[in-house]
Amino acid sequence: MSFNKVKRFEDLIVWQKARILAKEVYILSKRKGISEDFGLKKQILNSSGSIPDNIAEGFERNGNKEYKQFLSIAKGSAGELRSQFYRIYDREILNEEEFNYFKNSVVEISKMLNSMMNIISSSNFKGTKYK
Question: How far apart are CA 116 and CA 123, in angstroms?
Answer without folding.
Answer: 11
